[in-house]
């Protein structure tokens, strides 16, 4: 008898307590970073999410833009400007962001996921009125004499209507959300994917929010990982400037989700193969957990 | 008392027999042509479709590409080639078609429709595995010495999985479908919107398929409209060459829908304001009706 | 192309915001007065109510007695007496009221409504225990030396059991209620139709109560219409004697409905053709609105 | 310990096999004759029907007119004419029949039944489009020189739409049907109650049809009861003239019900107290059973 | 006509008000004592419970062990010890108790009940995690020098998970519960059947708990029955020592049920034939009622 | 990062195609033999079955008696006799079989399974009327002069009523069936567990039947495993005497299941740890597959 077969069976039964614990629960995954540009990692993440659905979870994916947006902008002769990690967005940029995000990146994920078993359905924040947006306030650039800069079509989330997500979940579909939003005049906005994931997790009172990033989690000033942090801890670290600009929207997404009633949020390293399953199906988990 | 008010009420009660007749019925609308490039007509079509939903119908919209695809190709320095009304599609073209169709045109319709009351959800043929495609056979160009031309990523419909449409209908949403398709290897194809609408209408056993075109319907050689035609009539007209190249995919869509059990199909002039409502809510209707 | 067709379509799309606003909402209509004796008005009211159902509302009709009760009493050699707009009712009168109301007027409305599309079901206050009644207290006649008069089988509403209405609504039927009631000993009472409509609207927490009367609404002492009045306004007007005896039960019905949680109540002129649709589907509405 | 208590408990447990056998089954009861004019018998029948519902059956009652119609006609100075047990019905008569049947007799039954626990809902053949009617063919009177007589507003059943009965059954209500009908022009007809009960039983594919009459069942020429008869037996007896004019509509109702798939039909003596329960809950039953 | 038939029908209609009152209500029956050892009484109890289900109640049965456990222990050469009516239970005894209770007595009841119409399903406290148990505290024996005795595998109820009972009720099954329990380490305990019935009634917020015992109910010191007692009365009687050791677990079961929201509890004499039906279907009832 | 964690994740994602394929499918497992007497194997089997439920399958377990029945019989001084693998069963034996099977073995499995996550519910063939039995025909012993022997209370399956299994499946419970049966007179029979599993799989039109045995599957005369056999192959092997007495009931169970519409049946070696998962989640599977 094949000994490796038995070892594999052992792995499956060891996963049982975790499978039981998350049965029927909604888990929102923010997908982005290296896990999105590396083809092998992408295959793994997609397989992990389909597996999550088939072992009884209700995954909802929110993805960011990848290198494709930059490429498309370069092709169109546009140079991106970023402030606080937010892309300054004029109308021409917004058109590119939207078509590439919704028609390109999102559809590619849907295709991959359906090949693994899906069934996935792509959504934007406009579909079913999922994300209501409003224009973000202008930001001050860095430095003492920095100008106040209008971010253009960068939007904040004014509200989430989760009905389309509930309808798809009950139909057994995996929703894949491209984070655009629309205001009451029908103007389209670019929405930060981390914050969209946090708000959606809160609106669904999800069990978990997991953000795939390119670092191991939240690090202390010496570069050591914090395995768990409370909300208070995190707010203290922000105040103390320990949490850097790149990590800030992710941490804020966690805080928003926790306010909305999500039980646990996780910032994990998407460069680790199958990081999602490691977080969900092992006792120690990976990355930093921010809890209520 | 305001006499125009009373006249308006009269109009509403005159619509009652039609409203009753279509209550709870699925109506597939192929949206394209001039009604899509003219901003006022577009507003009207969108309002008509939202009205259809609120008076009890279950509309499903399938849209084609509009001038935006041509523009995007021109911007990218690509020149389109058409054979039998089908766009020869290489990979670069397909990428543009998909992003503009799914991320541009589709999302614009969703936005408009949600502003009129919706609630609309954009779909591609990939979402929920809606349209399974396969590569179209190469076509012979015109003329005796014409070469056989590979159409590239132009696809035929291999199958429709209407489950996502049913899920959205039952949730009260209006599905707006951008006609892409995907084969078993995950290759994306450009699908003719007329044929996609015909197949979808058949798969849903819709009550009606209505195709918005730029002419009044099917015309006889003297330019006179045929108000009604049976399937046999239509097949005879195709054989006799009365139905021209531009009208052919629309007529084939009707035939496919009728084979699938759809009761009536209509080719109407989208340049007439509110042509959809005139077709649905007046005794004479408009355009050409092709019936079982 | 028929320009009137396009004008008609325009009317339909203008109605869309109102149709959306009342989608799935219960609207109780008190039907009586001239709109019930004039054959053309009757046709219009019935068509309006069927239309309401087909554009997504849930209409419930409560009707009064019309001239038919008077005729039947005259034929039987009985002379009616009224106090405060309430018919003094002995047993012989009650028998005539019940048979004519439930077997005559109600069934005529059901027939008319079913011919327009219905589907209508006639109910009395006895069916499914809809209206529990108790004997009204005796009233003092007018004038200083007026006797206290026992109203006989005139009843007050002791309770509403709306389950039969909910069952019919969910089955897609339009309930048409003849306002009789029964007490715990099985004695049948004549119930004022206005008050029955008000109580039923309250028990269903309807969106609206609309009373069709023979005047334009509540008028000020100079005969000018009050377009809107708050509950407090109305109570003040009753105190000041501005609201006359004929209007009193209608106003009380509005107050009862508002107490029960109905959002808006309307007293409108049933002599205006399609007054119901004008109230529901135009911005200004008609008649007097009494609101929370 | 009370011995009569134990005897009573014995009776209940003896009923168990019958209660189990009819659990969830529809039983149509034609109620008429002496059981309707005698107050004590009426109380018993009503109690029996409420009991049927509470031990799990789904009773549907169809009632005829009683002496009240004759009285009302006499009061109005009209003399009834009968042909083949069918009342010749002019417009004035029809108006009296309808108001007394629907507004009088039906409502009295509803009141009684609700006092016993109900919950009962009165219906006419018009409510929910239950009975579609058409004018009966003229009949030849008796005797060789008899004229052909137009029966006026006597109707035949053109169709049954049982949806309102199903809606009420599922809501737990007992429907009480007054057998009027309406044709496509909205003309009201008088429908024979026996035949209405037979058609309704067939349309519901009821388990049983039970007709309460004033004799013990179908009698042979010597006056002896036939306890069971097959459809063939019955058709032979009609041919041979053994079944008299009064019994004919009842027998025809049984045959119609059997054609519609009803398993057993019973003609029983309504003058026997609790004849319904004796038929349902004892091994021998009572009256004549006509079976498939 | 058979006069006894009519008398029987009378009995059935007299039961109607009680049948209506308990329609759809859950009634928990603790079955034990003489009613379990006497074959005729057993038949009667089983028939009564099946009847309860068919007249619309939702019975749940909890049974104790009967003489069979003693016999099986004797056969195995074990002598039972009882303290406060609780059987001291070592592992060998527990194995016998469980096999005889769950595999013997329970299955015999299921067989009998299914022959009467059922449909019954046997459960232990382990099935679906129905009864969570914990080890009972040691008890002091009687007398001044009495030792403290460990009761072994006698358990207390730590919690009830009624989901399996709800699932079976909704499927139309009658659950028959053998009162074993299991703790978190998987150790099996013997649970007092009276207390199990009380806790289950509370967890289901049953309408009634009925305990079948071998005496007429709670008796005063002169041997006279208390027909009704409030919770306060009962607590006083316990304090005063009026309620003896045998009656104590039954009375405690009533108190637990009442705490859980059960409306009425009854201690009745199972030696009276059909005592259950007499309690449920007669005005006076039997035994002692302990109420909120 | 823990490399073994990643290896484990790999195992999980490799299982995905199998998990998808069996999602929502019923799989009947016959549990017996060594896998039941060895404590470690038992833990594994139970964990495997709970895992099956949590990855979306609907497992139904049928178990045989183990060594415990023999022990209990020895204790009671009874010596078992077997004919064709069937235990000759007198009344005393039947009582032991039933109590040990239903009250002992079944409850032990329920306890184990609930500790792993369950939720399991024990059933006998009597519960909910699951297995209707009839007495088996007498069998001829071996040898030419062998007597015909009455098997006593050994039963054949006369019918399966799967309603209780469906009710439990829909409630999310895992049914564990002890194979007793009952005939119309209420006599209890001992039913072969293999055949019970086969009949139940057929009655549920299960996706698979898996029988855990003590050998690798069906072996050819040289002792080599047949990996797959068609029904025809198997019938040929029976005819040729290749399939021995011990394997016969297992093979017959497969044939009965296949007749009932089960797609695949498997005879596998329960002594291999996690044999169930290896069969379900690896490409090659284990044991012998008998297919349609």
SS field, number of helical segments of chain A: 10
Domain module tally of chain A: 1
Identify the overall geometry of chain A.
globular
Sheet with most strands of chain A:
8 strands, mixed
CATH superfamily of chain A: Acetylglutamate kinase-like
CATH top level label of chain A: Alpha Beta
Write down the CATH topology of chain A.
Carbamate kinase
Low-confidence stretches of chain A: none
Give the second-level CATH assignment, the architecture of chain A. Answer: 3-Layer(aba) Sandwich
From the N-terminal CA to the C-terminal CA of chain A, the straight-line distance is: 48 Å
Strand content of chain A: 15-25%
Would you report the number of β strands of chain A?
A: 16
* H/E series of chain A: HEHHEHEEHEEEEEHEEEHEEHHEHE
| Most extensive protein-chain contact, per-chain counts | A-B, 39 and 39 residues
Going across the biggest sheet of chain A, name each strand in turn.
Answer: 5-10-2-1-13-15-16-14
Quaternary state of the chains? homohexamer
Structural key phrases:
homohexamer; 292 residues; alpha/beta; Carbamate kinase; eight-stranded mixed beta sheet; four-stranded mixed beta sheet; 10 helices; 16 strands; 23% strand
Description of the structure:
The structure is a homohexamer of 292-residue chains. With 292 residues, chain A is α/β, with parallel strands linked by helices. Chain A has a single domain, classed as Acetylglutamate kinase-like (Carbamate kinase). Chain A contains ten helices and 16 strands. Chain A has an eight-stranded mixed beta sheet, sandwiched between helices. A four-stranded mixed beta sheet of chain A has the order 6-9-12-11, covered by helices on one side. A two-stranded antiparallel ribbon of chain A has the order 3-4. Chain A is globular. Chain A starts with a helix and ends with a strand. Chains in contact: A-B, A-F, B-C, C-D, D-E, E-F. At the A-B interface, helix 5, strand 5 and helix 6 of A face helix 5, strand 5 and helix 6 of B.
